[in-house]
Design a protein that fits this description.
This protein has 122 residues and is mainly beta. It has helices at residues 43-53, 115-120; strands at residues 6-18, 24-39, 59-64, 75-78, 84-94, 104-112. The protein has one domain (6-120): Bacteriophage SPP1 head-tail adaptor protein (Thrombin, subunit H). It contains two helices and six strands, in the order ββαββββα. A six-stranded antiparallel barrel has the order 1-2-3-6-5-4. A hairpin with a 5-residue loop joins β1 (6-18) and β2 (24-39). The longest helix is centred in the middle third of the chain and has 11 residues, at 43-53. It starts with 5 loop residues before the first strand and ends with a helix.
């Protein structure tokens, strides 16, 4: 049995032109990233992320080797059955590509965008 990832959409943020208050506007660039694994975070990952960032990890993404995208403070759109928009938490962790036997060497935690608002809404 071979592991097979899915294609996700990564929305990388960059600074665009400046507004009337001389503040840079956010510009998002959508990029498809193929062969990404989506999995449940471990209990340790959930606890550490909540203690460090005060955020709840929903999923953990395994990113393929050779990926050069910026995963810090990025938005991620997952297809069904996960569906919806997510935001990365913290910095990705990566291993040495040559020392990892599979096709993935980077791990990114994501949280659901707007989940806390909907849970606490009356």
């Amino acid at each position: 049995m071979e592991l097979k990832g899915i294609t996700i959409t990564l929305r990388e943020m960059s600074e665009g032109e400046r507004d009337a208050f001389n503040m840079p506007r956010k510009v998002y660039t959508d990029t498809n990233v193929a062969d990404v694994l989506v999995g449940e975070p471990s209990t340790e990952d959930i606890t550490q992320t909540f203690n460090l960032y005060g955020k709840k990890v929903k999923y953990t993404l395994a990113i393929p080797k050779g990926d050069t995208h910026n995963w810090v403070n990025a938005l991620v759109v997952l297809p069904e059955p996960f569906g919806g928009e997510y935001k990365t938490i913290g910095y990705p962790t990566a291993g040495i590509e040559e020392n990892i036997p599979l096709r993935w060497n980077k791990k990114v935690h994501i949280e659901r965008v707007g989940e806390y608002e909907s849970e606490n809404s009356p």
